[in-house]
Amino acid sequence: MHLRTRRARLLVAASTLLVPAALLASAQTATAAPSTASVSIASTLPQWLPKPAAGARSRVAVPKADAKQRLAIRVYLAPKGGQAALEQAAAAVSDPSSSSYGQFLSAPQFQAAYEPTSASAKSVTKWLKSKHLKVTGTGANRRWVGASGTVAQLDKAFDVSLSKLTHDGQKVVAPTTAAQVPASLASSVLTVSGLDTSVARKTHDSKPKVTPPDAFQNARPCSVYYGQVAAKYADDYSTALPKFNGQTLPYAPCGYTGPQLRAAYTPGTTLSGKGVTVAITDAYAWQLIASDAEKYATQHGDGHYKAGQLTQVLPKTFTDQDACDPSGWSGEETLDVEAVHALAPAANIRYYASPSCNDDDFADTLAKVVDEDIAKVVTNSWGGPEEAETSDLVVAYNQVFLQGALQGTTFLFSSGDDGDNLASTGIKQASSPASNPNVTAVGGTSTGIDASGKRIFDTGWGTVKDNLSKDGKSWSSIGFTSGAGGGFSSLFNRPAYQKGVVPSSAPAGRAFPDIAMDADPNTGFLVGQTQTFPDYVHYGEYRIGGTSLASPLAAAMLALTIEHNGGRPFGALNPRLYATKGVADDVVKQPTRLGVVRADYTDPTDSSSPVIYSVREFGRDSSLWTDKGWDPVTGIGVPNAKFLALTTPASSAVAAAKR
């Protein structure tokens, strides 16, 4: 995971698709009969604000923001018919026990039923102007009305006190009370973003020409398949390496390729993803993706890309390049594209580039995916810790996921690469948007694929590294380095679809991930990309992993399932996953400590640099565990043949008439 970094929330009792508490709170307030001149929008109060001390009536006083500082805001508009109606409809089409299951809407049908009304947009626009704010535009399909103004103007308009605060290492402006809007607008306003200026960048001026990233080269020895080369000797094949806990471990695989992954995950099937479009979202755009992907596919048996099979949807401009590292994102795009094509070689791939790695840009990019309604599977290998999120953008993301659910679009998100996030953030916490109940979170495994292409083991991805001692006689642990993200959300309560599957003894909150696929960089995927080497810029290949690999692999598996289902999609997938037994191979703790020896160049850009050795232990993911049944590393397990055979009903004439 990267800044919204790259990686290389339940209160409606009858619903299986559930929404953030902040969203529900604002909706409840907005629909209450107005007895005062204004109503509170709860989701505008930053959840990260320190709570008042015990016995204190209010928070510690903070300095006011500069009254003349200008801020840009968005007023997100409520859907036609109300938020509750949208949630109930999304729940119904996602619930396998409902008569409406699988009866999805087209994008035009969705807009006709739920697009915020022109009257709402006009009323909000008129009010903003009356408060001397500059209206800057309206989002696609009237999702939001944009405006800007000074701190003094915004204080007065929303009855807040914008203050100087520190959040997530940033100096920000934020309100210390929830924003107020006139009661007459309560049914029109969903939330307001921009009053809290915290930036949650997801990790990886005009269209950038991305600099090829610094090269990464995997040292030798490495194994073509798991277990091929025993790590008895160093690369000179005369210097002995010590055993690890009495075992001679194998060298890490050089990187699995498409034929190996297809043999391991889809043995015996002729499914290829034909007729299905998989969307990929990342930040920026790699100008050499078509040529790199074509070269990689033809060299490794994945087949040529047909004309129009790989397309890109680009914004007019790109921003925040210094903060977001476009070169790093080029590697993410390369991994996602090549992984989807490796497992579903006939699927169409449509890449949507976010203008930056900032939350509002990613929210707009995801909205473009559902508005176009071309792809029914969307893989997203980015995210960040929940503490970095602002409640207003949680609401904005959730609206897109609800639209996707009604249109039959499945969103998959990588669960993170830092385990419980304690080492990376200082707090055990979930990752977002993976923790949203309306998306499928993909965790990770360490996976052994043998010479025949068979998966001989899966264990939860969690790596402890042991370095070779200076005298070459022993291994010394330096501790946890990376592992699949997982745990329990502080933003979302446990959704109904997880009851009876996630242990009742587990902590409260939406439990994630939901499923898992190979993610361990030490049993990872071989990718090919043009890179900057010491001599010159050229194409090269290297092994990579992370849940950034697991998510596109899972998306490719779902593309195969949709092909098998006659092209009919699944929408919000989780209710079906948790209700259907046997759709995933359970991943359990291995009885012995597995691992590999890894050889690395001291300078990974330079294959003439010295080689160093380390052991990478499997199945040791921070405080998270792998066990029988659902667990916070692999969810319910690895999708299998029964997953590929999942079905949804054909659209009925009655349902079509209702639409």
From TrEMBL:
Listed cofactors: Ca(2+)
Peptidase S53 domain mapped to chain residues: 255-651
Coiled coil: none
Signal peptide boundaries: 1-32
A Pfam family the protein falls into: Pro-kuma_activ
CDD domains, alphabetized: Peptidases_S53 (cd04056), Pro-peptidase_S53 (cd11377)
The entry's keywords: Calcium, Hydrolase, Metal-binding, Protease, Serine protease, Signal, Zymogen
GO BP annotations, alphabetical order: proteolysis
Any one GO molecular function term: serine-type endopeptidase activity
Protein name from the UniProt record: Subtilase family protein
UniProt organism field: Microlunatus sagamiharensis
